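User: I'm curious whether this sequence folds into something compact or stays loose and floppy. Could you predict its structure so I can see for myself?
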Amino acid sequence: MSGDQHQTSYPSVLLHIGGEWRAADSGRIGEVLNPATQDVIGYYAHAGILDLDLALAAAEHGFQSWKRVSAFERCRVMRRAAEILRQRCDQIATWMTIEQGKPIAEARAEVMAGADIIEWFAEEGRRSYGRVIPARVPAVRQLTVKEPVGVVVAFTPWNFPINQAVRKISAALAAGCSIVLKAPEETPAAPAELVRAFVDAGLPAGALNLVYGTPGEISNHLIASPVVRKISFTGSTAVGKQLAALAGVHMKRATMELGGHTPVVVLRDANVDAAARITAAAKFRNAGQVCVSPTRFLIEEPVYDRFVDTFHQATKSVKVGSGLEPETTMGPLANARRIEAIDGMVHDAIQSGAELVAGGQVVGNRGYFYEPTILSRVPTAARVMNEEPFGPVALMVPLPSLEAIIAEANRLNFGLASYAFTRSAAAVNRLTDEIAAGMLSVNHTGLALPEVPFGGINDSGNGTEGGADALEPYLNTKFVTHRSDA
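Assistant: Here's the prediction. I'll summarize afterward.
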């Protein structure tokens, strides 16, 4: 990225390969649009095959350097990167809002949370312990040691340009791996500044590389390379399955954080008003473009009308507009594709028999704005009840019992996040045992902290990108045994 770090205009975003910020070898560039205005605001360097090969070579070289750095010193470098990210928060957040659309307060929170994630992984990397295994005979020693798996390739989406990339970068670097990050073309500036924070903290050349380009070309070329030992992908289930299959062909480890269709269980004994306010705030965060966004509200019939009414009242306070305006609480959708998809699903649901409580319309004639939308009594056959909407649409469904709610929650093969609101310990125990999801949050929305697991099951992926388990996929376990009386 060229120019003064304190500039207010949107930058031109370069590739980062082997410690250098550079244009694509071909000179090719791509446009970046502001989703609030549909204006072209900048450009990114569009990598070709030669650039990808340079990135692979740089990562291979960088791995040889970085893996020899002690875990203690790796921690120090990463902590410096976290501090640099905090210092640059306002500038990075502004660029994120311009390129992605989310309100500036959410963008700032994402940058600061990214710094916390770096610090957490930095410290966790110092605790990659091996084991001493008791031997059967006195002269034998048996132990395991942890070693970095090697070069990692990561693919990250546009909905959280910092948050999704920082988990993969931090886990890889904390383990001693090098990494090639394929960041999103729609939102290139924020992840570039994340990379810059690591580089400016003193990371060796080649340990962290950044490319943009044609997603299919990049994934096919990088995953097939014998240099690469692990991939990590966040995105749609359909693309994730393709990449997981490609990784399997080439015997590469793969962590997949894929789509969801999050159920929200509201039982008759819940604090209904609090549940409605909490979930309304979560539903319209980032315009619903969140993989763990509350989506299917499965509500016991005695409290259904009250919940829907309270949720509706909370929704009325959502202010749609440019993310740069301080009063805005929901910005635009990311692109024209999302508008078309959401509008199509909403109209299909209404035609299928759902009741429109609020929203359901495009806002204005410039930018990708859509009203916060509530659909009531949505039939199971509606597309939006089966396909991840990934937008500002809340689906309300009355059900007669906990048994019926659990059955509907588990009807789809997604299994990322789930929420529940109840005062019953027995119900919590049953939901813990029976809800098919990688995460369950009861009476609050307590997900995605650095120290807790983050991941799904079934069509929502495999592996975790948070908590103590997140480092393990980036490490090999080597067994060593020796006999001293030979």
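Summary: Residues 32 and 346 are 28 Å apart (CA to CA). The longest helix spans residues 104-125.
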